[in-house]
Design brief:
With 528 residues, the chain is α+β, with helices and mostly antiparallel strands. It contains 16 helices and 21 strands.
Length: 528
């Protein structure tokens, strides 16, 4: 492994641009032979490591190895015990009693208790997590009869409750570190203290994060590795070069779709596994409209844009048929043929709609200009935006592309709401109730992947309130089908595709979660 590190240093030094971004300090890798897993992160550098207050993917992926939750997912995406070693559910589905594993300690040696769980839900997850209000609105009270027992009493039966108690949506924070502080500004957000299998040992800004094994982890036979190293590699070509040189071991999101087949041929014989998979919490690649914009507030303009977008071409040319077309934000739940309202490519119709909106073409053939926010952390976004720019010109719209890193793009679209169009992949799974985070009035500007569009429809809000309380599957389906119908009629977004992704890892490791659970912890990973 030491030779591997030196090779990596040499490689990075040979890349003028990348070397500045990715150069490693040699002292960073004093790991034992065979004890390291190097993960290439094709994303911008996280601003902090507190997954309890964000839905940013890079924070979740790293944070899942530092923190714990009441449950976690197994390799099949099934909730299994984590901090809670078992739980009971009352027959009416209103009371969940969790029995915590004994003897758990925080990374600073303080004991973990049920008070940490109650604090995390009441003071962090419900008020501060971008989708906490949506995910856990069913909670009425949280009781802690003793240090190892937590009792959740719900206002109504809520089917997806157990599924949402894993680390991405329900990270448990240390009360003794955060209580009485400004949680969003707490220094522990960048120097985390968790109960997870690894501790943050080193963070070289702009380069890498090194996590070391938590020797006091409450699961005595795990983790198997001594270290995890997360390398920030926002450039796809650099990622692939690092894979070919075996300078990284795992690229959970690091492969461009157009390289999947090529890399299977080139790297498969060298011990790499290249594949595609669906997210456990399915994302939907979408174009967002800022409905407060004076041009985009006109329905005819949004409809015209929807008729200019050729989803089949995006899927075939940019995504190489990875994923499938989406005609609504939850097409995995309400299939496309039951959406009710859809927008097919039709440039003539788009032009007619723009004329009807009072936006005629000028002497140069153009009508107006728009800008679209594109995160450089997702390799497919810029080529999609380039296609849109060409298509929009057919209707006299000058589309300007604004490229920025993932964190800046998310802030601009979802918090500041300082944008016109945006490309992103909000997740609305595994239960359609989660879709409320993006389409209810209460979630306007509430953080990453909430209602950045500023969409407000009282009927839709009422339907979400109704759907979350329904238990009968047929009744629930009918409710969410009505929501889909209303949303696609109002058109605050243009759904493009269900966001499957590509991954790569070396066969030298087992227990890697390359599929939809890749943002769970790597506590089960070990050398083959």
């Amino acid at each position: 492994m030491e030779m591997k590190r030196r090779t990596l240093l040499s490689y990075l030094a040979a890349l003028p641009a990348a070397a500045e971004v990715l150069s490693f300090g040699s002292a960073a890798f004093a790991a034992e032979e065979g004890g390291n897993l190097v993960v290439g992160l094709r994303t911008s550098e996280p601003r902090h490591l507190n997954p309890a207050v964000t839905t940013v993917g890079g924070v979740q992926l790293i944070g899942a190895n530092i923190y714990s939750a009441l449950t976690r997912f197994d390799m099949n995406g099934t909730p299994v015990p984590d901090l809670a070693q078992s739980w009971d559910i009352s027959t009416d589905g209103l009371v969940y009693t969790f029995h915590l594993a004994p003897g758990i300690k925080w990374h600073d040696g303080k004991p973990f208790t049920s008070a940490d769980v109650k604090f995390s839900f009441e003071k962090v997850l419900l008020p501060l997590h971008p989708v906490g209000k949506v995910n856990f609105s069913a909670i009425d009270t949280i009781e802690t009869p003793d240090d190892n027992t937590v009792v959740f009493k719900l206002k109504y039966a809520y089917a997806p409750f157990i599924q949402l108690l894993e680390v991405r949506h329900a990270t448990i924070l240390p009360k003794h570190i955060y209580d009485g502080t400004d949680i969003m500004q707490n220094p522990a957000n960048t120097a985390p203290i968790g109960t997870g299998p690894f501790k943050l040992a080193e963070w070289s800004k702009g380069n890498f994060l090194r996590l070391e094994k938590n020797a006091d982890y409450f699961k005595k036979d795990r983790p198997h590795l001594d270290e995890l190293v997360f390398v920030i590699i926002p450039d796809t070509n650099t990622m692939v070069a690092a894979m070919e040189a075996e300078q990284i071991d795992f690229a959970p999101l690091g492969v461009s779709f157009d390289l999947v087949e090529t890399l299977k041929t080139r790297l498969g014989p060298k011990g790499w596994v290249i594949g595609t998979a669906s997210y456990l919490f399915r994302g939907t690649g979408s174009v967002l409209f800022n409905l407060d914009d004076p041009t985009l507030c006109k329905l005819e303009v949004r409809q015209a844009i929807a008729h200019l977008i050729r989803k089949d071409e995006i899927l075939s040319t940019v995504r190489k048929n990875v994923g499938k077309i989406a005609d609504n934000p939850i097409s995995w739940y309400v299939p496309n043929d039951q959406t009710g309202v859809s927008y097919k490519p039709d440039a003539a119709k788009a032009n007619a709609l723009l004329d009807a909106a009072g936006l005629p073409k000028k002497a140069d053939g153009m009508r107006f200009a728009l800008s679209i926010v594109v995160s450089t952390g997702w390799a497919e976004y810029e080529p999609i935006a380039n296609l849109m720019r060409d298509w929009f010109r057919e209707a006299g719209i000058d589309l300007q592309i604004q490229k920025m890193d993932e964190a800046a793009a998310i802030d601009k679209m979802f918090t500041a709401r300082d944008f016109q169009l945006g490309l992103c992949n909000p997740s609305f799974g595994p239960d359609p109730a989660i879709m409320a985070k993006g389409f209810t009035a209460a979630m306007v500007g509430q953080g990453a992947y909430t209602n950045g569009m500023g969409y407000k429809n009282a009927t839709v809000d009422a339907l979400f309130d109704q759907g979350v309380k329904q238990v009968d599957p047929a009744e629930r389906y009918a409710t969410y089908q009505k929501i889909v119908q209303a949303v696609m009629t109002d058109l605050p977004v243009v759904p493009l595709y269900e966001d499957d992704f590509a991954y790569a890892y070396r066969k030298a490791f087992t227990g890697l979660p390359p599929g939809g659970t890749h943002r769970d912890s790597y506590e089960n990973v070990e050398k083959a």
